[in-house]
Amino acid sequence: MAKHIIGSTRELIPGQKKIVSLEGISIGVFNVNGSYYAVKNSCPHQQAPLCVGKVSGTTLPTKPGEFKYGREGEIIRCPWHGWEFDLTNGHSLFDPNRCWVKTYEVEVGQAEEEAPKLETFPVDVEEERVIVTINR
């Protein structure tokens, strides 16, 4: 299991998303009200780029004749056919036990300080001359 740093929490504020490619897999990382979730950027219906779809809320269970809207920012809608998925667990809203999108674990931690990388070049000494070789 490889871990990949995709950015800082300052870059991914609540309501924002970032689509990244990790190990050849397109993944959307979402900040939902301060919690982070990652889902595969592929709708299971016809492999549309799910993470470019609209993020919104949904209607909630209520008594007949009532209308209640909630879960703002937790639901993603496929841009091609409107299939909706819960970003917090990947399950579809219409059939959560049989249709879902792949999710990935997200951690928020202290970034280790990376030492600046210095570009180096091969050096040879020939007949008391120092020669630097640059291969591009």
TrEMBL record:
Top-level taxonomic group: Bacteria
Question: Which Pfam families has this protein been placed in?
Answer: Rieske (PF00355)
Under Gene3D superfamilies, the record lists: Rieske [2Fe-2S] iron-sulphur domain
Provide the Rieske domain boundaries: 3-115
Recall the GO molecular function terms of this protein's record.
Answer: 2 iron, 2 sulfur cluster binding; metal ion binding; monooxygenase activity; oxidoreductase activity, acting on paired donors, with incorporation or reduction of molecular oxygen
Keyword Metal-binding tagged: yes
Keyword set, alphabetical order: 2Fe-2S, Iron, Iron-sulfur, Metal-binding
Output this protein's name: Rieske (2Fe-2S) protein
Q: Which organism is it from?
A: Paenibacillus piri
